[in-house]
Each structure stands twice: as C-alpha cells, then as structure tokens.
Amino acid sequence: MGYSILKIVTGDWSDGRLYPVMADPALGGGMLVEREDLDGTSVVPIPVSTIRVDEVTAGGTVRLLECKKVKASLYVTDSRVVLACENYDKGSMYLGIGDIGATVAVAATAVSRLRARARRKGKMLTGQVRYQWLSEVRAAPKNGLLYPARLRLVCSTYDDKEGRRPYLLDVTLADPNPGSLEVALEIIHRAAAFKLRWYDGISEETRTELAKLAVAPPLERPEKGKVTGHSLPYYLYVRASTAVPAKFAKQT
Prior knowledge:
Blueprint: E1 6-10, E2 44-57, E3 60-67, E4 72-76, E5 80-85, E6 92-93, H1 102-108, H2 113-120, E7 123-130, E8 136-140, E9 150-159, E10 163-173, H3 180-198, H4 204-213, E11 228-231, H5 246-251
C-alpha cells in the first residue's frame, strides 16, 4: 500500500493527517513538527538513537526502514506519538521501498557526510502514530550494553485486497531517558484516555478495559531480552479520514 509510518517530508509539506508537518523554526515551540490542538500542553520529548519500521505480511515480517546512530526525538503528546529526525543520513541505512523509496535507500549510505548535510537541508524524516490508530505498546528496559531500552508501537492499515496489515515502529531510547517502561506506560495512559474522551461508539466492555488502562499500574520489569506492555482495545485503521476524531471536528 506504500505506507511505512515514516516519511521524508520537506518544508512545503502541509497535510499533517498521515505525516507531521515540519515546524517553523522562527515560531519556536520546542518541537521539530507543528503542534496540533489535540496535542495539549504537556509534551514529553525523548531522545532516540535507532529507528526501525517493519511491515507484517502474510509471508512474514518485512523491514521497511532501519536508521542507526541517529539523533531523533520522540514526542509523547495527548493525542499521538511523533518521531522526528533531521540527521537521518548520517549513520543510517534504509531498506525496502514504500514511501521512503528505494533510490533514497541506496543514496543514504553512499554519500559523503558533506553531501548528506546538504541534502538534509529543508528535509526531515518524520512520522506519527495517532492514539486512535494505536493497537499495542511494548517495551524492554535497558539491561547492560547488549540490551538497550526499547519501545514498540503497533498500528495497522486495511484494504479489501490485502486486508489488515500491521506495522511496527521500534525505537531504541538514547541516554538520558526516563526509562522505556515509564515511556510505554505514559503512552498507554494517554492513548486510553484519548479514546475514552473522543470516541463515543465504544462498547461498555471496551470502555471498561480502556478505563483500567488509563490508570494502569507501572509495568513489571520483564526477563532480560523480553518485552512487556499492553494491547489497546478499539483502534481505527490508519487513513487520512481517521486522523481527526469526528467528535473534535464537530467542535471546531
């Protein structure tokens, strides 16, 4: 379907429904992407050093993108998790196709640092998982050099030909960070609260589950190399048409 969670956008990108819009540096605001009304005022920034995107197909998992040794920012807001990376060339390697593109994949590991810096001007690797799309949050805590702090977010697309197609966004948190288990729990709390507030067509059983997740206790530390977290009931497929809750749209 050409979807990959992340996309290289330029300064003239203005449709923020699927992929974030670059922020105007002159306006400040502390984020590399434009704030949205639903983001709220409490935004938690977390440094990220490795980024991976996988697509789960009928034939197995396909890696669409992998970026290593980058300086990226993960923003946890009241309505979404946003990833923004300005230095995606340096130390990165792109795999697969989709929105990133095979041509960019080859170029990203072949150019010199000087050329990379020139090409990055006015561009950003960015993406988002809106809470209405979020179906799963998993995390693994740091446990020595071989086990860095990791976070996974899951969302899905759907069409009549391919059916449901899950996508995995995996990031390694850079130091200093509040801890991957703490970040995962923050996302779970905010996502559950967001769904309860903005979506009325949820069954009572599901609302009860979401209400528990909105105040879920701290995640227990898993065994070394294992992950922990929660699946979130009631999620929408990733589409431009589901990017803004209808309830919010009616109020604006």
